[in-house]
Design brief:
It is a single chain. By secondary structure, the protein is of the alpha/beta class. It is built from 25 helices and 27 strands. The protein folds into 3 domains: 357 residues, Alpha-Beta Barrel (TIM Barrel); 125 residues, Malate synthase G - maily-beta sub-domain; 137 residues, Malate synthase, domain III (Malate Synthase G, Chain: A, Domain 4, Up-down Bundle), CATH 1.20.1220. It is 43% helix and 19% strand. A hairpin with a 2-residue loop joins β14 and β15. The model has no long low-confidence stretch (mean pLDDT 96).
């Protein structure tokens, strides 16, 4: 790696050139002044960052010792709580308060809807994410298991399947945009007359039951090309085209129904990417910069045809008074930076240490966002939205606040320009959530729950307490359900409703949309005004739930209930006198191992940070580092407590590696290198084994240190 020495920093020359030649031009930032201030702040904050990480380990050792001393004794909750207070793990809640965040976009404050999460490292995914605000409901239904017919996976259009889609959409419109006196399935024409939507069934005229839900049209009023409707603050765009394949056979010439889908999107620099050095980080920053500038493009090929994908423009309409107006064409993007733990070799400090990656992300992602201040195609209010993961408690939230303030000072931004989203995915943050929010009350825009990372930390924190229950049983455990309610209750008590997002976790089965539609409505019903989805299609279908549930009314109801109890959250999910059969143990081990290996082999060998990996039942699951964390910690915990043996685990790893190899054995994946051909020399296989056999000693059970080490090792063999 070529190095530029600047202000006591040794910077990767490619990163230095990217910042100077691509990120800074077009802003008011002066390069020399920036690097001078940046160096001073990095050298000031890096030791604080290190101290916070060391504090985690000190606390964890104390918790380990507490459990060791009480091995075989009945768990005493009151004694445990007192101990957690003594070591600074659990802090006292102070007086009540309301968050004070200002200059927020409506997508954050007043619109409830799906939140898409995509890796920023891939420009095609990044573009898809930004463009996923408006998606065809017809296409989303046609290509999924919601519509039952044999032609679902065929490229040839099936008219019968198409009619089932249309039937589904008409029913959706009847439920949420009802017509007074008839059904959408009967209509023959749509006309706008004197600002009113006229709905025809043959020669008879009808109106919407709620005429205010019609907000405009596109094209001639007597022959509109689109009708725009609004329900629960979400838009529905009915496309009328008699020349279209669908429109010409539709009685009302409706060719499509496009609905607002991903209202906001998190572009991810963390769990779904494999950014281990300066080269990788530049790919992430460059894609983010392209979106902020509005010029990101990707060359695509589909069905043998090449085309260029670009960012979509705003959508134009005419309101009932004849005035032209626009609706945002893109999802509001939030940038998930990395947490406080990892460092990156792209920049070396005066003492020879690597830069804390979270500090680097804060500066460079914000600098790229400066370009959005001119065109305001992302934030209309001039805000920068950064989601901060894997923070442990109020001190780390406070550090993040200090860091963002330093970034604002360096880049000449108003205080609190940078907004923060808190990922409530670590146990010490959960139990102190109110005090974490207090530390960032002027810039907080988001809290959410994440089952996988949170469970991984639950396991690691209480590693010494005993063997953990089956992974699938975690979802039914008292601590987890209380944690979900606790997050909502805390957010609402701090004034989040109508101001900031309360989010829920990912739907991890992208091929099972029918199941998602049955299950994921629980999220808006729980008071969450956003919830994560893995694809634009999933966002479109999940958006239907937000038409069914008025989340803000639901939040008013929830505020009246008794707050979730901390004592329940502190219950440790260990197995009480486990009496599992060998078959049960092996099945659980195999399921965990398959997920680990299927994900890690792509992470290490191909640099893919988010993969659809089949589980033991051959159900494709979206895997990222969060799913990896829970699986590896679970196996490590069972190994440590003697539920299984080292030889047993290794046999399972080798067995499942062969299965994963077979799953990837196709002409499409010709670059795939089998782990089972040479276990001893497969870097990917060794990485997967490390995560299990060295799982207990990993900081907070995180997978990043081992993955980064092995990926750099792999890259050295490629380069």
């Amino acid at each position: 790696m070529n190095i530029i020495e600047k202000n006591g920093l040794k910077i990767s020359s490619t990163l230095y050139e990217f910042i100077n030649n691509e990120a800074i031009p077009g802003t008011k930032v002066k390069p020399d002044e920036f690097w001078d201030k940046f160096s001073k702040i990095v050298h000031e904050l890096a030791p604080e960052n290190k101290n916070l990480i060391e504090k985690r380990e000190i606390i964890q050792k104390k918790i380990d010792e507490w459990h060791k001393k009480r091995k075989g004794e009945n768990f005493n909750l009151n004694e445990y709580k007192k101990f957690l207070v003594e070591i600074g793990y659990l802090v006292k809640e102070k007086e009540n308060f309301k968050i004070k965040t200002k200059n927020l976009d409506s997508e954050i404050s007043s619109i409830a809807g799906p939140q898409l999460v995509v890796p920023i490292m891939n420009e095609r995914y990044a573009l898809n994410a930004a463009n996923a605000r408006w998606v065809s409901l017809y296409d989303s239904l046609y290509g999924t298991d919601i519509i039952e017919s044999e032609e679902g996976g065929s490229e040839r259009y099936d008219p019968a399947r198409g009619q089932e889609v249309i039937k589904y959409v008409r029913k959706f419109l009847d439920e949420h945009i009802p017509v007074n006196g008839t059904s959408w399935k009967n209509i023959s024409n749509l006309v706008v007359n004197k600002g009113n939507l006229i709905i025809y069934k043959d020669d008879s005229e009808f109106r919407l039951k709620d005429t205010k839900k019609f907000i405009g049209h596109r094209g001639a009023s007597n022959k509109p090309s689109a009708i725009i409707l609004k329900n629960n603050n979400l838009h529905i765009d009915i496309i009328i085209n008699p020349d279209h394949l669908i429109g010409k056979v539709d009685k009302a010439n409706i060719s499509d129904v496009i609905i607002e889908s991903a209202i906001s999107t998190i572009v991810d620099n963390e769990d779904s990417v494999t950014a281990v050095d300066g080269e990788d980080k530049i790919r992430c920053y460059r894609n983010w910069l392209g979106i902020m500038k509005g010029d990101l493009k990707a060359e695509m090929e589909k069905n043998g045809k090449k085309f260029t994908r670009e960012l979509k423009p705003d959508r134009e309409y005419t309101n009932p008074n004849g005035v032209k107006f626009k609706l945002h064409g893109r999802a509001l993007l939030l940038n998930r930076n990395v947490g406080h733990l990892m460092t990156n070799p792209a920049i070396i400090l005066k003492d020879g240490s690597e830069i804390p990656e979270g500090i680097m992300d804060a500066f460079f992602s914000t600098m790229c966002a400066l370009h959005d201040f001119k065109n305001k195609k992302n934030s209309r209010t001039g805000s920068v939205y950064i989601v901060k993961p894997k923070m442990h408690g109020p001190d780390e939230a406070s550090f993040t606040n200090d860091l963002f303030e330093k970034v604002e000072e360096t880049l000449n931004l108003k205080k609190y320009t940078i907004k923060v989203g808190i990922m409530d995915e670590e146990r010490r943050t959960t139990v102190n959530l109110k005090e974490c929010i207090r530390k960032v009350k002027e810039r907080i825009v988001f809290i959410n729950t994440g089952f996988l990372d949170r469970t991984g930390d639950e396991m690691h924190t209480s590693f010494e307490a005993g063997p953990m229950i089956f992974k699938g049983d975690m979802k039914k455990s008292a601590w987890l359900n209380t944690y979900e309610d606790w997050n909502v209750d805390t957010g609402l008590s701090c004034g989040f409703s109508g101001v900031a997002q309360i989010g829920k976790g990912m739907w991890a089965m992208p091929d099972r949309m029918s199941d998602m539609m049955k299950q994921k409505i629980v999220h808006p019903n729980s008071g969450a005004n956003c919830a994560w989805v893995p694809s634009p299609t999933a966002a479109t279908l999940h958006s239907i739930h937000y038409h069914e549930v008025n989340v803000f009314k639901k939040q008013i109801e929830i505020k009246k209930r008794q707050k979730a109890k901390l004592d329940k959250i502190l219950e440790i999910p260990t197995a009480d006198r486990p009496n599992w059969s060998v078959e049960e143990i092996n099945k659980e081990l195999e399921n965990n191992a398959q997920g680990i290996l299927g994900y890690v082999v792509r992470w290490i060998d191909q640099g893919v940070g988010c993969s659809k990996v089949p589980d033991i039942n051959n159900i494709g699951l979206m895997e990222d580092r969060a799913t990896l964390r829970i699986s590896s910690q679970h196996m490590a915990n069972w190994l440590y407590h003697g539920v299984c043996t080292q030889d047993q685990v290794m046999d399972v790893m080798k067995k499942m590696a062969k299965i994963v190899d077979k799953q990837n054995d196709s002409s499409e994946k010709s670059n795939y290198k089998k782990m089972s051909d040479d276990f001893e020399n497969s870097i990917a296989f060794k990485a997967a084994c490390d995560l299990v056999f060295k799982g207990k000693e990993q900081p907070s059970g995180y997978t990043e240190p081992l993955l980064h080490q092995r990926r750099l090792e792999k890259k050295s063999t490629i380069n």
